[in-house]
Amino acid sequence: MTFLSILFALLIEQLKPLRADNPIYASIKSFAGSIEGWFNAGHAHHGRLGWAVMVGALTIPAALIYWLCVHISPIAAFAWNVLIVYLTLGFRHYSHYFTSIQLALNSGDEMTARALLAEWTKQDTAGMDVSEISRIASERALITTHRHVFGVFFWFLMPAGPALAVMYRVSEYLSRAWNEPDHMKYEAFGRFAARAFYWIDWIPARMTAAAFAVVGNFEDAIYAWRNFASRWDDEAAGIILAAGGGAMGVRFGTPKETAAGIILPVDAATVDTLPEETDGLPGDTPSPRTLQSTVGLVWRALLLWMFLLLLLSVAVWMG
Question: TM segments (predicted)?
Answer without folding.
Answer: 49-68, 75-94, 148-168, 297-318
